[in-house]
Amino acid sequence: xxxxxxxxxxxxxxxxxxxxxxxxxxxxxxxxxxxxxxxxxxxxxxxxxxxxxxxxxxxxxxxxxxxxxxxxxxxxxxxxxxxxxxxxxxxxxxxxxxxxxxxxxxxxxxxxxxxxxxxxxxxxxxxxxxxxxxxxxxxxxxxxxxxxxxxxxxxxxxxxxxxxxxxxxxxxxxxxxxxxxxxxxxxxx
Length: 189
Known about the structure:
Elements: E1 4-11, H1 16-29, E2 33-39, E3 48-56, E4 69-74, H2 77-82, E5 87-96, H3 103-106, H4 116-122, E6 126-130, H5 132-139, H6 145-154, H7 161-169, H8 177-188
Parallel strand pairs: 1-4, 4-5, 5-6
Antiparallel strand pairs: 1-3, 2-3
């Protein structure tokens, strides 16, 4: 099988690393060769964070080049726009419509770009944009955006619900398990 590539992009503190680890665990249990690469950037200061998840029969490198991502899972609209050139021609961006102001916007040196969802769609990109933050809050915590997004991503994979739930159970602390399962199901719906 051809190697598949998923980029998980967001801002530090949004849970991108947990999402990539959970996805990596699931893919390993399915027998794929999996490579996960974490690029932190200024994650401690709310900066851009990107993680690569590559899987297939045999994967030699964890890095995804421009034009290779089958999916970009974005935790924030500006991050979705920032990484569009990495998307493959037939790829798809799944993004939270939440806006997190980067430091130049916070300091007044720049303005947050308007109509990003429309601008991305106008590029001819397959886009699945929705308010993952509202669904995470409905599940019980704004910190569950990562699991909501994985729930949405799960619609595009042939894995069973039991397989996804097992990956969640082995990745999140027991006290947050039910909330995360609810967040996943809300994202999937």
